[in-house]
Design a protein that fits this description.
- By secondary structure, this protein is mainly beta.
- Helix content is 13%, strand content 33%.
- It has a domain of 147 residues: Pectate Lyase C-like (3 Solenoid).
- A 10-stranded parallel sheet has the order 1-2-5-8-11-14-17-20-23-26, sandwiched between helices. An 8-stranded parallel sheet has the order 3-6-9-12-15-18-21-24, with no helix packed on it.
Length: 339
């Protein structure tokens, strides 16, 4: 009897607590299903996006069933509050093979939107308040011959208050344009070789896996994980990598400075020997590296040996790096308001 009474009391307590537990996060007002085989509301993802009304203020789930979807998908600025959900990043993939036209130097100096760089993205989100979970974004353009690789984006992220959870981004050059706004990437997989995370954004990458696909025949040439573009001292921005790992093939820099206030932090990241000893490159900062903030704190693995790093890398203490790795760097409450 005492045992049954204790169980009943526990159930009663849980029922009292249940409303508080279930109210965490925002509710979803409706679900639209995409199935390439015709067993959903739409066969194409963009058709489901188009159904969301302009000026939408209620979270709408677009559930994309397992399969490969060859299409360009755009979340326009007017269609906020979309949750894009797949059946796992290994099962649900949006892929295309667009690429940018024009010289690399002109593209990067003119900005990421020059000569169609933005347009090369398989997936683009311009709206604020967007969530993606368990889905992958792929640009297949540079999959084969990487000798004459060119910008070919898997995704462009150009809104504020955006999060990605357990998503994959696959490309080679400029895989993920993390362009503007505050973003959170949680346990994501990002694969590329040249500036495969680039832009101006203010983002935290927590527990993410960064994989180099630089070919072994590149020899002495090395790629770059990041190209951050913070332009002025007063601008928000920075890429912060918390936990996770850097691995893959070939040789890889942790980043290069697109502009003179570029900000990239690696915090407690496991780095394989794919990371080159110097770690970083100045690129467009040239000799003006005083204001570049590239730093590593508490990292492990053979690639984390800082003995050969560039002399202008910043050496922050755990306390000094705190303002970057704390969630308040990007979050003033918006993450808890997502579904």
């Amino acid at each position: 009897m005492e045992c049954r009474h204790a169980v009943s009391l526990l159930v009663f307590v849980l029922l009292l607590r249940w409303p508080a537990l279930s109210s965490a996060g925002a509710p979803v007002s409706r679900t639209i299903t995409v199935d390439r085989n015709g067993r959903g509301d739409f066969r194409r993802i963009q058709s489901a996006v188009n159904l969301v009304p302009d000026g939408n203020r209620e979270w709408v789930r677009i559930h994309v069933r397992a399969g490969g979807y060859r299409e360009n998908v755009t979340i326009p600025r007017e269609k906020g509050y979309i949750l894009l959900e797949g059946d796992g990043s290994w099962n649900t993939d949006i892929y295309f093979d667009n690429y940018a036209h024009g010289s690399i130097d002109d593209l990067m100096r003119s900005g990421a939107d020059a000569i169609g760089t933005y347009d090369s993205a398989t997936f683009k989100v311009y709206a604020d308040n967007f969530v993606a979970r368990d889905i992958s974004f792929t640009n297949t353009h540079n999959t084969g011959n990487k000798t004459n690789a060119i910008q070919a984006l898997a995704a462009l992220v150009n809104g504020d208050r955006i999060s990605f959870h357990r998503c994959a981004f696959r490309g080679f050059q400029d895989t993920l344009c993390d362009n503007t706004g505050r973003h959170y990437f949680h346990e994501c997989f990002i694969k590329g070789g040249i500036d495969f995370i680039f832009g101006y954004a203010q983002s935290i990458y927590e527990g993410c896996t960064l994989v180099s696909n630089i070919p072994l025949w590149y020899g002495r040439h090395a790629g770059w994980v990041t190209a951050h573009a913070r332009l002025h001292a007063g601008d928000p921005g920075g890429f912060v990598f918390k936990g996770g790992e850097v691995r893959g093939t070939g040789r890889l820099h942790l980043g290069r400075a697109w502009n003179k206030y570029a900000t990239v932090v690696y915090y407690h990241v496991n780095m394989s020997s794919v990371v080159v000893p110097q770690g970083w490159a100045p690129w467009y900062a040239g000799r003006e590296t005083n204001d570049v903030l590239f730093t590593e704190v508490g990292c492990i693995g053979p690639g984390s040996n800082m003995a050969g790093r560039v002399p202008w890398e910043k050496h922050l203490t755990e306390a000094e790096v705190g303002k970057f790795v704390d969630m308040s760097f990007i979050d003033d409450g918006w993450l808890s308001e997502q579904p």
